Amino acid sequence: MTQTSAAPPAGAHTGENAAVATGLTKQYGTGDNAVTALREVSAAFPRGRFTAIMGPSGSGKSTFLHCLAGLDTATSGSVVIGGVEITGLSRTRLTRLRRDRLGFVFQSFNLLPMLTAEENIRLTGRLGGRKADRAWFDTIVDALGLRGRLGHRPGELSGGQQQRVAVARALLTRPDVLFADEPTGNLDSRSGGEVLGFLRTAVDDYGQTVIMVTHDPAAAAHADRVLFLADGRIVHELMEPTIDGVHAVMRRMED
Ligand SMILES: Nc1ncnc2c1ncn2[C@@H]1O[C@H](COP(=O)(O)OP(=O)(O)OP(=O)(O)O)[C@@H](O)[C@H]1O
Question: Where is the ABC transporter domain (predicted)?
């Protein structure tokens, strides 16, 4: 990954932003098969804020999230997470940074079926992440309403409960950023609303930073702001979004 001439967003290397992307470009394939999924995308994600990323199918949302989170490597541009430039980190250091400083929640809950809810939640800590104290574990478990389910395996839990376990697991190490890719995509609206409500609480009450990709205007309305992608570029930013406001931007993008 090489630097581009794009100027880093303000505060790129200070503590005020949990994540900063500068001039991020991602090309898949080469020659006639080349697809440019991201085109010089720059954005800063302030600490303690909830950002949603929206846009039409194929606009580059997942690619953007994956490049920000060090799950994929951009073709050019840079990403700074918690003050650390991840561009050019060795695979080992990147893996450690992801494990210790980032949390992930995906559409499919990605829990280990043979482990109980409690064992799944504690897994990241056992693998070497930041040590979680008992009080923080209790706070998350109670806030997510999982106290009575800790001994159950994923197969004995509803989808909403499984996703709440995944959120607890992601937050246990108090990550610099919690990345969520369509976290409510497999949930009914009530369970999805509970998960989103808790992500909001994690930001408001615990100072966490959340970056979430979603198709759903109701989900995006839980965020502090929405970034809209189209054809690999950020084309609009909406602060304090409402469901109607998100719909209005999406309609304008379709025109
Ligand atoms: N591994 C890959 N190889 C080749 N092209 C890819 C790959 N992953 C994504 N793309 C292409 O990059 C573009 C952006 O894809 P991406 O998955 O980031 O979009 P998205 O906005 O998340 O879409 P969706 O909402 O459908 O999940 C698309 O044209 C897609 O086909």
Answer: 19-255
